[in-house]
């Protein structure tokens, strides 16, 4: 269907597609709900230290720069683990690798609740850094795994919304768990935050192994739904195929992921949006407490509004992208429009430097959150562009390079706050990433299309 398709024909095709989807079955949405819940808990586990950070730093005697280094420990390991995690997903499949990841990250979160038993402050800080490092390492297969599951279970025309849903789980994690974790910290102490989240993750792991599987062999998948998603471009039977063949990837093939101009545009865009993410899940609550004078209980409530806006932006961005594809727009343009618009809105975070009231700050952050959510279509782009034989590895490279921002951003903000005593320059640093992201998608990347790996580079 081209952009010049008559409206009547578009309506007929949309109705036919909707009727086919309805009659095919909807078990794929159960799988989507599973990765959505997994991502909610994944992000809540990452954010535990940002909520408990003020109490932890007080008990352990951490300076802002030291806390920034502890925050960055997760991202160092998360970046290191992306390519190996993607390779493991390609070799052993999402059910086994992702499931093991959930178990391990839950145990690691649980252990952080006991670092105060270490002998001395120095040992406690070292233990916390090490556990955050291990947490990042074992969580590394999660988002490449999400992208792999969406590629396997969803046709192209539904991937925008599907990826937006699991990507927007980060905001729901804030909505659901920030007030809860703030309450646990206030009433029982920061240690109970980690214990609660660790136990919740172990319960999730049991659900994962019960529900997850491959579309072609899953006992709950109907023949009609399988036919529908296959006809729409879903890479069904992907896990079974790689487990049977276990192909060896040559460096000459892998390096094409690093020499494609299109992929570098995607990687830089992900770096920029991830910088915004790490500001919100590390320093944002502390900014509200130390920079704006709010209490931890107030922050637990106030942080919900921007998160709700981010969640809404994510759903709207994914739905808009899929709608534009159904209207005949190319997938490339349909992905770029919400991303570039959202990154423009996210840059307004710097406006918080020019207002005095806390209500205005929350409103500005809510708009920036909405923009960041609107632009969260990067994983849909990966599903559309990743080589068929390297979906997990490509997702790992994408997420690994993007999450270098998780190393840089907390440390830079911590250094700026420690040296200037203010968050003003830190907000300029964060906001600049929105503009860089627009240039990456709009100028560097060019048209998005599936990368075809050649035998020899």
UniProtKB/TrEMBL annotation:
One of the Pfam families matching this protein, by short name: MFS_1
PROSITE patterns named in the record: MFS
InterPro entries xref list: MFS (IPR011701), MFS_dom (IPR020846), MFS_Na/Anion_cotransporter (IPR050382), MFS_trans_sf (IPR036259), Sugar_P_transporter (IPR000849)
Keyword Cell membrane: yes
Highest taxon in the source lineage: Bacteria
Transmembrane regions listed in the UniProt entry: 27-44, 64-85, 97-115, 121-143, 164-184, 190-211, 264-289, 301-325, 337-355, 361-381, 393-415, 427-448
Residues of the Major facilitator superfamily (MFS) profile domain: 31-449
Predominant cellular place of this UniProt entry's protein: membrane
Compartmental location: Cell membrane
Membrane topology term: Multi-pass membrane protein
Record-level Gene Ontology MF annotations: transmembrane transporter activity
Coiled-coil region list: none
The keyword Transmembrane is assigned to this record: yes
GO cellular component: plasma membrane
NCBIfam families membership: 2A0114 (TIGR00893)
Protein name as it appears in the record: MFS transporter
